[in-house]
Structure formats: structure tokens, C-alpha cells
Amino acid sequence: MSLRSITGCYLCKSKRKKCDETKPRCLRQLRCIRRGENCEYEYIESSGTKRRTRPAPRPASELVNKAPKDPLDLVTSPQHPNTTVGSIATEAWYQSLPGPLLESVHSVGMDWEATLYQPAATLSLSTFPFQAEAEFPCSDSEQFIAPQNLNPDQASLFNSLLSLEKANSHAEHNFTSSSAPMITHTTPDVDLGHHMSQPSWSNTYDSFSFLCGPDINYFGDDENDPEGVGEVLCQVPVRLDPIVDSNSLAFVLQSYARWMPLVVFDPLIIASATQEGIIRRFLDCPGSRSRLLLVSNVMRRLAKSWNLDEGGKMTLSSLRDQVWQNVINYRSKELPPTENERKRANAALDQLIELVVIHLYSSPLVSTIRLLQSAAAVFLSACPAPHLPNMLELLLEADMNVRLFAGVDVVISITTGRPLLCRYDVPWSLEICDRFIQKREDQGLRWLGGIPDQFILLFGFMSNIRENAIATKTEVDTTIIQQIEEDIKNAIIAPCDSRDPSLGIGRMVVQECWREVVFIFLYMAVCGLDAFDQRVERAQRRFMKLMKGIKPGRHPDAFLVIPTILVGVATTRSSHRQTITSRIFSRPEFSTPNTAVNDYLRILEDIWARTQVEGRAARWEDLREACRRVTGV
């Protein structure tokens, strides 16, 4: 039997990887140094004759043999400390919560008609059998009860999770084996920098790879996470408050690490900012922490199977209720919104876009549309002055929640034929596009779905032109059309860097496919041409050539589905239609009924069927009609 290496580097030992022991740094370290992880061979004194390097931390699984294998069993809800998130008892609690009544429409108590295309649909709390607690602002102090249902071994594990060490610094905290007293403390400052610079605990760190153990590999799978997103999210040491359940935070970060490579176009770009946002919300207040745990639970379930079981559906329903209540509980107190008012509104949007992304794979399209309608007024309160909100500034400078809402508003509008939910001031020129090339990678929204930021801005600009032409019953000036056409051709798309060359190529193909979609939107939506027009046909053929030229797979197909649906409106050849449907159905996450993507495919099939029966080419107005027939809105 081969012996475990005793002279490998500490970094390889910590990751439970085989070290080739090349000096002065092993080959594995050369990859990790690029991520900011630098570790050399650290020799320690040994009583034997052989030199030994520093051993790795022992996994939690060795601390207690009876510890559950799945972190789902260890995560406790902040509001229900005796109930685990993954337990039957918690799922029964989820089931007792009613789903939001999407059909109810009530006034939000303020006049947004000047900035909204359509009134925001909200709910009255009287329609719910329970009264949700308003969470703005979070209370100054919160009470936490340490778990009381732990056996002695589990209590020992819980103690170890809250007493992790870094280097030679140790912090000792004692928990009783069978019960723990109620602990009252002041909620940490939501400013992460302030919280971490003035910790209430001594220099104690938490390495989340330690929590997993070698038998639970949540972020080390090179096939599912070839760029190491999980290592950025989960293995960066984080200083914690002593009252915070370290294992719950590890569960949240691990869930995001499993989810993001599946649904985010370029997750490595946003991994660090995502981690900071998760920690800030986790330390914010019990309500924010509860939503984070629910989001993480649903993400983890979907990462395992795109078909949610009953427990997953109950968890999703509870998450939807909490996000919905968070939105409708918000009421603007100051007009125009002050800085504090914008912070309150921004907090009300927490987890909204994450729920929208989850809906894409788990809920009908109508749920997303109505949720965004209800949140539109909150979004406007969160926008920086002046109103109308400037889309360019939103994409480059705004907080993440506001930036994401604006981007999703554009995507939902162009994929359903519906007007934008809000009115925007949208400047446009090629010189403005240069600002997107010069921006930081984590600015904008390209990292989320693969749409180049300049094209999101251009979609907003063209949507304004289209709505103005419809309102005034006039045609768009041909000089404007020609200028936009030239700008689309000359727009520079920043290259996609990746340690995996195939991912880089796939990402560039996705972005170039969006260029052809912009052409089709210009010709059909703005100019009013049908699918038989030569310019539309040329753009459609270029798109199909690009799509056929890249090998099918999760990446890029997961991020080609939205542009493919839009190109499908302009597709007339049966062979091309077959290619589109087969490419979409090849992904298991898109073949599930009663999901947003499946609804999009039904919309496309409705357009094809109606135009065939009527013997004509499709027009952009058919998209709006098909959306109404499929979703009812």
C-alpha cells in the first residue's frame, strides 16, 4: 500500500491533490499563482529521520464520524434554528407558505406614470394569510439561538467549525454538548470593509475547503468548473463574527460555486464580487440570510437535477414568497429619492435577479414578467438621479441590483415583443462603445449572459426609437437606420480570455451571434421588414453558419438559446427550424415543461404555425402576439 506523501507542498495537501514535488514550486502551484495563491514548501521539525512539510488541515469528516455527508443537513435557518434547510420539517414549513397571487394588481401608492411604460403590478398584504415582517431597515439588534438539538459529536463539530485556525493564531470558543444559551448581539455593520477591519473576534479565519473534506468535491471538478470559480468563491480566507454559523456561509458559497459555472457566461470575472456580496448579505440581517439560504438550496438542487422534486418546489415557493414580500413591502418615503432611500430600494431588490435566473429553468415565463412588473417602481427608486435613468451609467456605474434589472428589462422586452418596463435615457454612438472596451471586466453585464454591453445599450436605443415611431405613427428616418447599421458592423467586441481555449472560442461565437441578432432586430423591429427581406435573410444565414460552426455542448449552447429564439422569428427554412429546435432540446435544462425557456420555444412554434397557415412571412409583431397566446400577458 502506498504511503501518503509527507513532503508535498502545503497548497496541494490542502486541496487533497497529488503534488509532483518539483522545486522550488510544483507545476500545480504555477497555475494557482495566477489566481493569487502562492505557497512554497514549508518544512517543519520532525522527530523522525525524514524531513516533513507542513500537513494540511484535517477534514471535518475526521472530526466526527457521524457528521452528515451533505451540507444540506448541517445548514440551519437563522429564523428556525432547530430546523435544517434540507429537512422534511423545513419543507413542511415551506409548504405552509402560500404562493404570491400574481393576478392581483394594486396601486403602489405613488405616481410612476411619468417613468413607467406600464403600471407596476404589486400585491396587497391583506391577500396573504400571514403578515410579512418589513425588513427595511434591518433592526439594530438581533437575537440568535445556537442549535440545541446537537448530540455531543455534532456539538464538537459545530465547535470546530467556529474555531478554525490560520497559521499560528488560535481562537477557542466553548459550546455545551447538549444545549447552548441564547446569545444577543448587535448586528454587524453591513459595510464589509468596516466589519472586517473591526472584528469582534480575534484573528480567526475560515477556509471553506476545510469544511468540505476530501469526500465531498463541490468545486474541484475540472469538467464542471474548468476555470476554478469554486476556488475563488470558497477557498479565500474570510474573517467571521463568532456568532455567524460558519457552515451555513460555507454552504451558501459552495452552492453558488456549483451554480455559477452552469448559468453564468463568464463566472470567473464576477466570482470575487459575488463572494463579497454574499458575505455582506449574510452578515446583514436574518431576513437577508434566510433568502440567501433559500436561494442556495434551490441552486444546489437544480445543479443536481433540472427537474425539481417536491421539496425543491416548496423551497422555490418559499423563496418566491420572500422575494415578493421584500419587493412589495418597500414604500418610497422621499421624493426625489435620497441616497438613503436608494439604499433601501436597492436592498429591496436583493435576490430578485437570482430568482429571475432560477425561473428561467424552473418556472413559467409569466412568473418572471409579473415579478419584474412589480419591482419596476422599486428599481426606479434605486436608480441614481436624475430620472429618467441613464442606461449607459446604469451599465457602467450602478449597483449590481440596479444594473442587472436594467439588463433583464431589455432582454425580456426584445424576447417577448413587449415594451420596456421603464423609460430610459439611452445615448448611443461608437465613441460611447469605447467606454465599454475600457471598463473593468466586472462592470457591465456581458459576464452574465454573453450579450456585449454595447449591444444591450443599442437594444435600448432602438427600442426607444421604435416606441416613439409607434406612438407618433411615423417611420424611422432612413439616415438613422443607415448609421445604426454601420455602427453594428464596426462595433468592437472585447476578446474573451480563458485558460480553456475552447471556452474562449465558444464565448466569441456567442457574442458574434448577438451581432447578427442586433441586425435582425434593426430590420424587423425598427424598420418593420418581414422575414423574407434580403437583409433579414443574410443576417439569419450568418447566424446559422456561426451556430453550426461550433460544436454542440453546454457551453456555448446554454448561452445561445436566447439569441437563437430571436433568430427563429426570422427563420423560414424548415431545415434551419429543425436545427434550432434540436439544438435547444439537446440541453436537458431547456426541455423541461412549464419553464421560461420552454415557453420561449412554444412562442417560436406558434409564430411558425400561424405564418404557415396564413401563407406569409413572419413580422416582429408576431412575437408579441405569440407571447400573449402562450403566457396570457
From TrEMBL:
Boundaries of every Zn(2)-C6 fungal-type domain copy: 3-50
Keywords carried by this UniProt record: Nucleus
Keyword Acetylation: no
Superkingdom of source: Eukaryota
Region (Disordered) location: 46-79
Subcellular location per the Swiss-Prot or TrEMBL entry: Nucleus
GO CC annotations on file: nucleus
Gene Ontology MF term list: DNA-binding transcription factor activity, RNA polymerase II-specific; zinc ion binding
Record PANTHER family: TRANSCRIPTIONAL ACTIVATOR PROTEIN UGA3, ZN(II)2CYS6 TRANSCRIPTION FACTOR (EUROFUNG)
Protein name in UniProt: Zn(2)-C6 fungal-type domain-containing protein
